[in-house]
Amino acid sequence: MKRACGNVSGILFQYPFYAGIMGIIVGTGLGKQIGSSLAQTATVKTLPMIAFFTRGLVNFAIPSAGGEWAVIGPSIIETAKVLGTEMSPEQFSKFIARLALAVAYGETLTNLIQPFFILIILPVMGAGVRLQARDVMGYVFIPFIAYMLVYLAFICSVSM
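Request: output the structure for the sequence above.
Response:
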């Protein structure tokens, strides 16, 4: 593996572990339990922020958007249904849209700290140089903080 893809072998080596982690979280019901316990404290105003942070945390264990959704998606949807019982159809539609954005933002934000897009960029940038993923990680931390503040401001300020 190191010979075939030396500058990204450390990242590629992790994929089977991520699949195993997802299997454990989904198969044991741990994902549902985590999502349910977080959702129990949620309100209409706090659920988008909870979904944002939960999706971001799950992204570290399972960097696949579909795998992450399989772990936390059902809990978020069930919580939204419970919280949205008193809403009009238009309000509920806006609430679901806000949740969908919060979930997407949480997933994309943590991709800056765990940047799998580097798999494509490193071979091009590192042509003729021994450039490793750890060499660029410091440069993505500042955008991570900036985007997190922007996302949180957006999620918290949008009115229903």
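Helices lie at 9-12, 15-27, 30-40, 47-61, 65-83, 89-110, 118-125, 137-157.
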